[in-house]
Amino acid sequence: MSEEPEIRPGQYAQKKGEVVLREHVYDGIQEYDQTLPNWWLFIFFGALLFFFGYWIAYYQFGWTKTDAHRIDQAMAVIAEAKSKALEEMLAKLNDEALVNEWAADPAIVANGETTYMANCVACHGQDLAAKFDIGGGQSVPLPGRSLTDGQWEYGSKPMDIFRIINEGTPAGMPGHNGAKMEAWGQKIPPIQVAELTAFLISRNFAEFNKL
Ligand code: HEC
């Protein structure tokens, strides 16, 4: 007696174009016994393959980048360009050059004054004395320190002044009446910090021209 190859009911039914139900019934619900359609299987296994490829590319090799990565990279490029610009400027600057070249050049001082009037008057005042004139010979103090009193909290050398403008109140320092100076190097390029320093020196020239 030749043995018939075993045919699963689902395959058989598919060949015959019939519908086969499995024997069990749960809560009155019955189950087809059929192979899944190819389009369904294609999507299912395709999704598994896609996941596997994506998992390798994304998590194992890092081939694709997220927006956060792209932003971090762009920021790193900017930070590098900034620190390079600062390095180049610091290579050119020293106490003597700031006094004898920068502060002695009217065009540079004028640029520094423009930047000062746009960014610094609010706290250091129009006349650099950190006071605001309210008329009638009276004035109120502004948050910044006077920049004409010959007193420099963080060093009186021109490069010290460059540094305090560039880096702001050093970490851990209490500031002035609780107010701190922000790091302007984060906002304006080093050349403008140098021009500001030249402007401040020019306004205190008697003090600095001993250098
Ligand atoms: C929001 C207020 C504010 C602004 C705007 C501001 N400063 Fe200041 N500045 C301060 C304060 C407060 C201090 C004192 C900080 C300290 O003692 O730590 C200070 C300190 C300084 C000092 C040191 C003074 C000293 O006697 O040692 C210099 C120089 C200075 N600022 C320059 C500038 C320049 C240049 C600008 C414009 C780019 C500027 N500041 C803008 C608040 C300000």
Please give a structural write-up.
By secondary structure, the protein is mainly α. The protein has a domain at 82-208: Orthogonal Bundle (Cytochrome Bc1 Complex, Chain D, domain 2), CATH 1.10.760. The protein contains 9 helices and 2 strands, in the order ααααααββααα. It has helices spanning 9-16, 38-60, 67-92, 95-102, 106-119, 121-124, 158-167, 190-203, 205-208; strands at residues 131-135, 138-141. Strands 1-2 form a two-stranded antiparallel ribbon. Helix 5 packs across helix 8 (190-203) and helix 7 crosses helix 8 (190-203). The longest helix has 26 residues, at 67-92. It is rod-shaped, with a radius of gyration of 38 Å. The relative contact order is 0.10. The structure holds heme C (HEC).
